[in-house]
Amino acid sequence: MARGQQKAQSQAKAAEKQAKMKKQQGHSANEQKKAAQKALIHVCTVCKAQMPDPKTYKQHFENKHPKNDMPEELKVVS
Fold first, then answer.
1. What is the distance between the alpha carbons of residues 62 and 19, in angstroms, rounded to a whole number?
2. pLDDT tens, position by position, for the chain (78 residues)?
3. Which Pfam families does the entry mention (predicted)?
4. 54 near 77, Cβ under 8 Å?
5. pTM score, two decimals?
6. Please, what sign has the CA dihedral across residues 38, 40, 46, 47?
């Protein structure tokens, strides 16, 4: 019955290897989504789209809402 013991050892070793690989892989998808959401701090006043920085927000506003008046916070952004 040597094969039975070898099989159990092999399975344990494979499970340990899988656990190490999963740990090295890093964050879960849910954690990555939360981190990305924290970076989106600017919200468009018209369409509620979220942007990471004021420059992107200004470009968005100029392209998507040209007829609307630009918010005061974007007029100073270069």
1. 49
2. 458 888 899 999 999 999 888 777 766 778 788 888 888 888 998 999 999 989 999 999 999 999 999 888 888 887
3. SERF-like_N (PF04419)
4. yes
5. 0.55
6. negative
